Amino acid sequence: MTTGTSDLTQTVEIGVGAVSFDDLIAVAREGSAVRLSDDALAAIDRARAVVDELAGAPTPAYGISTGFGALATRHIPTEMRAQLQRSLVRSHAAGSGPEVEREVVRALMLLRLSTLATGHTGVRRGTAELLAGLLTHGITPVVREYGSLGCSGDLAPLSHCALALMGEGEVRDAAGTLMPAADALAAAGLAPVELAAKEGLALINGTDGMLGMLVMAIADLRMLLRTADIAAAMSVEGQLATDRVFAPELQAIRPHPGQAASAANLVALLAGSGVVASHRGPDCNRVQDAYSLRCSPQVHGAARDTVDHAALVAGRELASAVDNPVVLAEEGRVESNGNFHGAPVAYVLDFLAIVAADVASISERRTDRFLDKARNHGLPPFLADDPGVDSGHMIAQYTQAAIVSELKRLAVPASVDSIPSSAMQEDHVSMGWSAARKLRRAVDGLMRVVAIEVLTAARALDLRAPLTPSPATGAVVALLRGAGIEGPGPDRHLSPEIEAAVALVGSGAVLRAAEEVVGPLRW
């Protein structure tokens, strides 16, 4: 639940239930503050009472009075258990490589806090409140690219966050300044925690990083796939293709919901097009269009349905308490389990990388048709002002092709790989973190490919004058021109125009421009 505060920032309240997609985005990307609800604090207290009781019992309990992983058979005496937790976090904070993006770290911190709030982990309330404090004050631990096998959860990334709670390691403050964690905590008026029994393990054993990246990718893809419909409409229009294939009665005989939504968007976006109307009469001798134009709803729709499946999995995971062992407070016991395994999340992360690659592939094919004089129906080669002297958008398509080729490599699944670890105790892992990292690159690539299609199609629509585009696609052309992206003319430095188009797509401005004309596009 998100509530307003007097300074107009938002605070997300974490209870014992699932974090919503919107709340995760608010905390990860918008910097919202966080607080724990009263019911969450009560659940935390109940679970902690169970851990304290087991810690004082003579019978060994995994994660409380034993070592970890392949070292679980060693019983740890009471006087060494605080050291056990510190050693666990320090040794597991073994990441390497570039820093992970701030939004990813905030997402994984929020999701770990959400699991703590369920009352199944056994941390003390002060430890959970300190994690909430880091999020609220914008303190972001430095997490490295490599270190997680997606099982037992995202161990190394979460350990870097737990290290900051101990006042150790490096963080970035709200302004992005790199500093020791102890200094950042002190500046925010926060005191580091000395971890007690079970707490170190509870802070690092979850699928939070890969899940956070999944939720953000779903949000991005929901925007990008509707923008891809806009790009496809512009290409259908600019290449003198027909809109008849998008009729609802044709979609109804193959009732995939995503396909119907995409086709309906294309119909709405092309309504009122002077370009389409110009070749709709009996004199048109085009029997049918190329697959990349005609089958856009089938591809974009299948992508939507796959995103919806991924969202279903993400919703289940958001409602989960992922830890090992877990505290069953009502029964007064702690049990080992395998819920930390990232397979459910890893699979859909890989599915979405396939989606990004294929939607980008069909977008690139639509773009390429504009540039080939034999297939673009009367437009100049490469949309050049003076072909031969000018190259037009020739190399923009090269850029698309290079990205699509990369996306095909990124579509190779990570989740089918497994490298045993921890002396064969952890002998099958999900590689979900790796799947999430490559999906982020794939989503970025899709955004760039769609932006180049929009850029190229806008130039083609200008070249169709005096025929007029539809009000919706015309609004997108006007958006580009208003952003300083010029229309047809002699060759100029193209990279800045591509980056400007990428920014308009990535910010949602292209989608908003079309929706201001036709209303919300269907998902």
Automatic annotation (TrEMBL):
Q: How would you describe the post-translational modification of this protein?
A: Contains an active site 4-methylidene-imidazol-5-one (MIO), which is formed autocatalytically by cyclization and dehydration of residues Cys-Ser-Gly.
Instruction: Name the Gene Ontology molecular function terms of this record.
Output: histidine ammonia-lyase activity
At what sequence positions does the UniProt record place the cross-link 5-imidazolinone (Ala-Gly)?
Answer: C151-G153
Q: Superkingdom, according to UniProt? A: Bacteria
Listed A to Z, the keywords are: Cytoplasm, Histidine metabolism, Lyase
Q: What is the lineage of its organism?
A: Bacteria, Bacillati, Actinomycetota, Actinomycetes, Propionibacteriales
- Where would one find coiled-coil regions in this protein? none
Its pathway, per UniProt, is: Amino-acid degradation; L-histidine degradation into L-glutamate; N-formimidoyl-L-glutamate from L-histidine: step 1/3
Residues annotated with 2,3-didehydroalanine (Ser) modification: S152
Q: Which family does it belong to?
A: Belongs to the PAL/histidase family.
- EC assignment: 4.3.1.3
User: What protein name applies here?
Assistant: Histidine ammonia-lyase
Query: Could you tell me which species this protein originates from?
Result: Nocardioides hankookensis
Keyword Iron on entry: no
Gene3D superfamilies in the record = Fumarase/aspartase (Central domain), Fumarase/aspartase (N-terminal domain)
Sequence intervals crossing the membrane: none
